[in-house]
Amino acid sequence: MMKNKTIVIPRSRKLFFKTYVSFAALITIFAISLGVFYMRMYDTTLIRSNTDELKQKAVNVAQKCSSCFAANDYEGWFAYYQYLVGIDGLDTVTVSNSAAEHPLSDTFTGQFDAADTNRDEVYKMVGKTIETMEPQSGTGYSSSHDCKTIIVSAPVIGYGGECAGVLFVFMNVNAERQIVASTTRMILVSSLVALLIAFVFAIPFVNALTRPISSIRATALTLASGDYSAKTNIHSGDELGELAEAMDFLADKLSENEIERRNAEQMRLDFFANVSHELRTPITVMRAYTESLVDGVVSEPAKIRQYYQRMNAESIAMERLVGDLLTLSKMQNPDFEIEKEPVNLKQVFQDLVRTASTMAEEKKIRIDMQLCSDPCIMMGDYERLRQMFLVIIDNAIKFSDNSGVVHIRLDCDSKIHVAIADEGVGIAAEELPYIFDKFYRSKLRQNAKGSGLGLAIAKNICKKHNGTINVESEKGKGTKFIFTFEPETKVRRK
Question: Considering the domain boundaries, does residue 286 fall inside one?
Fold first, then answer.
């Protein structure tokens, strides 16, 4: 026994079938409505045209009847009547107005065929024609011809201008109805052919409409699965094109957010890895000193004091390291925005020199500072700028020989230029590309206590201020750091 099977339309084609069926139904309804309207209009126009023509003929025949009646020329009227029947094929009947003073005589009147004509309609027209003295028209049914009949009446004017009778002219519209029927068949056949052609040509149009929607749906599902590289690849100037562009824009934004999330996650992992790596050594040292003190291995007061001093130094180093790591992590976060305000760089360097002079005195290093005469204003964070330049000056003092010179230059024109140079050991050419990397430290003895974060912090602070930093160095001849920033007035013009 065969079971009924349900045809399942794939989801991607449901919209196609719905749209196609809706389009087909709309076209079909439109074609049928247009055909019916056209047939009705054609029928109405044909009847109206024939009625107007028949009215004119009825008036002419009524005038002939009036003249024959006035001359009592029955033979002339009969001859004219025979002419009308033979030439025009008109059916005419004349009805006497019994209420007139001189009604039409019986020789001028005829009788209606009750089975062939709507007698009630005719009698109504008689009364209205006599009353208005104007031609009247109507429709009836001719059983002998099995068709619709046009009936027109016209007054026959007798003596003294009175209505002596009413002339009726009948025309069956069988031939015209056949024309209407033939035209109807032609319209139906043309409509069917047009519908078939429209249904065939509608397929590519409906496909063109539904295919982008299916593509957008597939892209949305791909994005939902986590693949943000998906694109609709739809480029059109309509609403679907705008929707596709919005979907592609969403994909780009999701991709950017995913990259930012991964970067943030990697930064978090790097931060914990760096903290773990850098704190392992000082914690190990502190643990060794602490265990020695707890176990009583060290008993001499001088030795105990020395251990405490080392433990204090390691604690300070760990505190500095954690602070640098936090600062660097904050600077590398793309979402972190520093609070900027107008800062006078001359004031920053005057403050820095007072701090750096204390460090420079230990090595008898002279600081040669040349500042521009006018105030040098830029948009920035005073403390961050001070921290950035202090890192560079500290390194310049650290890597300079005793009794050396550190040069500081500040120029403010179309751009702000800051140059900090020393006459120390310099940096080897192969090391220059890596000096701004985190935890990179040269093997020089001056850098033994460094954390390798200072220059990385300085570079990120510079980037947050939309500046650039360049390094010029030669082994044994010193190092020069050059900073470039936009002045405050230029920042405002932007």
Answer: yes
Would you say residue 227 lies in a domain? no
CA 27 to chain centre: 30
pTM confidence score: 0.42
What residues contact 279, with CB distance under 8 A and at least 6 apart?
Answer: 318, 321, 322
d(C-alpha 131, C-alpha 114), whole Å: 24
With beta carbons less than 8 A apart as the criterion, state whether 327 and 299 touch: no
pLDDT band at 482 (very low <50, low <70, confident <90, very high): very high
Q: Count CB-CB contacts under 10 A for residue 459.
A: 20
Estimate the share of the chain in helix, then strand, then coil, as percent rounded to the nearest 5. 60, 15, 25
- pLDDT reported for residue 90: 67
Domain boundary residue among 329, 364, 380?
329
pLDDT of residue 6: 40
- Is 66:159 a contact under the CB 8 Å cutoff? no
Helices and strands (DSSP H and E) totals, the chain: 10, 11
Average pLDDT, the chain: 77
Q: Do 291 and 247 have their domain in common?
A: yes
At 253 the pLDDT is: 83
Contact 282, 317 (CB under 8 A): yes
Both tokens assigned to 129: 């024609």
Work out the number of other CB atoms within 10 angstroms of the CB of residue 134: 12
Provide the CA 270 distance to its chain's centre, in angstroms: 40
Closest CA to 404 of 445, 370, 359, 444: 359
At residue 314 the predicted structure's pLDDT band, cuts being 50, 70 and 90, is confident
Name the pLDDT band for 480 (thresholds 50, 70, 90).
very high
What pLDDT, on the 0 to 100 scale, is given for residue 275?
Answer: 67
d(C-alpha 11, C-alpha 9), whole Å = 6
User: How many whole angstroms separate alpha carbon 47 and alpha carbon 211?
Assistant: 51
Q: Which residues contact 352 (CB under 8 A, 6 or more apart)?
A: 386, 389, 390, 393
| N-to-C CA span, the chain | 83
